[in-house]
Every structure is written in C-alpha cells, then in structure tokens.
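The data are set out underneath:

___
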Amino acid sequence: MKRRPRAPRAVEPSRVSPRDVLSEAVAGLVQRPGRSALTALGTVLGVGAFVAVLGLTATASARVDSRFDLLTATEVTVEDVARERDEFAGPGFPADADARIERLGGVRHAGVLWTVRLAPGTTVRAAPVGGGAAGERIDVVAASPGALRAAVPRVAQGRLYDEFASATAQPVAVLGASVAARLGITTLQTRPAVFIGDEPFVVAGIVDDVRRRPDVLMSVTVPRTTAERIWGPPESGAARMLVATETGAARQIADEAPVALRPDHPEYLKAVPPPDPRTLRAGVTGDLDQLFLLLAAVCLVIGAVGIANTTLVAVLERTGEIGLRRALGARGRHITAQFLMESGVLGMLGGLVGTALGVSTVIGVALVRDWTPVVHPATAAAAPAIGLATGVLAGLYPAWRAARIEPAEALRH
C-alpha cells in the first residue's frame, strides 16, 4: 500500500518585534562606546547650534525691544523740504525752532543741525598755522543747544555750550573725543582753541559718547547761529531737526511738529516718526535666524555625514554577523530596521545632549551680558526630534547596503 506524500509544511515568516530591534541596536552601540560617542558628536554640535541660535536670537530680539523703547521709539526727525515744494521758499526752520518744539507736550529736547559746507581746502587745526590734523578733513556740524542735548552726549571734559552762547553767536565748539585726540588736545585746563580755516573757536567741552547722532563724535560742533554768521545759512534741504520725546509721544509729535514750526506752510517740513517696533523686531530676528540657522544646518549635515560614514563602516565590519542573522531566518527588512534603529538612536542621543548644550549656552551668554534668557519651549521639544530625523536619514544608505548582503557570500567572509 502506497503512502500518500505529505504536504510540505509552510514556513512561518520570521518575526522580530520592535523591542528586539531596539535591544540589538543598543547592544551594537554599547559594544563600541568610543566610536558611538564620536559619531554622535556631529549631531550634538548641529542640534546644540540650532537651539543656541534660536535661543540667542529670541534673547537678542527681546534686547532689541528694550533698546527700541529707550531710543528709537523716542526719536523724531524733521526734514526741510521747502525748496522741493516752492522754488522761491526760504529756509524751512524758523530762528526759534527749538523753543517752538520744546513747548509741545511730550518733548524732552529738540534742535536744528546740519553739516557745514566749508570752502575747498579748509582744515581744522589746533594752532593758527600748520597742524591740520595730519592733513585730514574734519567735518564741522552746526547744532543748536537743543540738538546737542537730544543726542544724549556724555561729556568727558568741560561742558556743552548753552542758549546764551547760541543767542550771542559765540565762537565756541564741542569736540568729539577722537577729533580731540587727532588735534592733540588732551585737557581743557589750558583753554585750548581750534581753528576752522582762519576762524578761532574756544573748546568748551569734549564728548566721548552719544546715544544718538554718532557722527558728532567725529566732528567739531559749533552753535547754529555762529555757523550762520560765519558761513551763512545751510543749503536747501541740508538742515534737519532732531527731537527727543517721552516714550509713546513720538508719533503725536511727528504730527504736530510741522504745524508748530511753520503754521503758514507746514508742507515745507516733513516729520519722520520712528518705525513700527514690530517691523524692526521682525527684520532683526529674520536676519539673525537666516544667518545662524544656516550655520546650524551645516553642523547637522556634518553630523549626518559622520553617522552615515560610521554606520557604513559598521556594516562592512559586521558582514559575517549579518550573514549569520540572514541564515537564521532574518529578512532584509529586519537588517534594515536594525541599522536604522542604531543610527536613529545615535541621532536622538546627540539631539538630547545638543539640546542641553544649546540651552546652557543661551543661559551662559545671558548671564555674562546681564540679559534675560529666552528659549521657546517648542524649540527645546523639537531639537531631539531633529536629531532623530538626522540619524534616520543618515542611516538609510548603510541600512540598504546591509539588507542587500547575500547570506552565503557574507558567511564566506
């Protein structure tokens, strides 16, 4: 009696749980701790740079806001556009422009200023003859006392000239610290003078810092009335008024200034209010983000290349192990999952360490600069995920190479 042939037993597909893949990946990393640490270093730097960049940008943006409130939000500039409106119009600013604006509510200081146009060859000297500041030309700025005060200067020696000196057109001058150094003036105890061309001016004070109009530090500043007496009125459009206001009053002052100065022809003057703080903040933040995020992206690319290179070397070194696993029933997708898990774990660890490093950097810089550190929670939460994604992307090619290794060929090696 013939026996009926048995039907072939179906081979069950190999199954590997995610837990098994994770344990194998961790075991592969722990076997080479030094290499794993060096491989993750690129991701640490990239993610750390990412967190530090966004944190420092947010911190700097907050700092910009505070500086904006102190300076830019309280500054109004009034320009002379009389000749643009009327060819035969005279100067746009009246003689008592300072007093008219300072009577407005919310104005701290205000004054007219312009750069004097000197005759060709006119130099500034510290002696009646020779010594023209090493042959370099020095600008001369005509400014009323209110304009000097609106610039918020810090006087190193002497004092600023006052309304009496301006009303009587006194030949006095205020020097920037760099100009005084170029002219060899180090002290005011000897009552030094400077010569603009052939005109002598007694040095009333030396300014070493200003919060507005930094060109004052590089110039010789004389009273407006003195400049008009010696060199004549300013050219059309050259003069402008600087107004320092209380916080929140700048836009109102910008609306009122032309009418207060020239009620007969307010169109002869153009008031420029401070820019919108939201626009300024967005511009500064956007520029910083683009610059530093590019550097963070470069670091992440370097980290990804490092992970890909190390994982590929590990695939070549573990060819025998891969062949043995395939011979015992592991499928190609299992090998792919193992190496992707290894590279992903490296990337995630690098992301965690990089996040801690970036946050520490932001806090350290803020403490040194006496700022308030700002790190958005979404940034700290997304950074490890970015590290994980970098590791997985970097491990795609090595994992694909490992999955294509033939078991018989691998066992021969």
Remarks:
- The longest strand covers residues 199-210.
- The chain has 14 helices and eleven strands.
- Confidence is low (pLDDT under 50) at residues 9-13, 131-135.
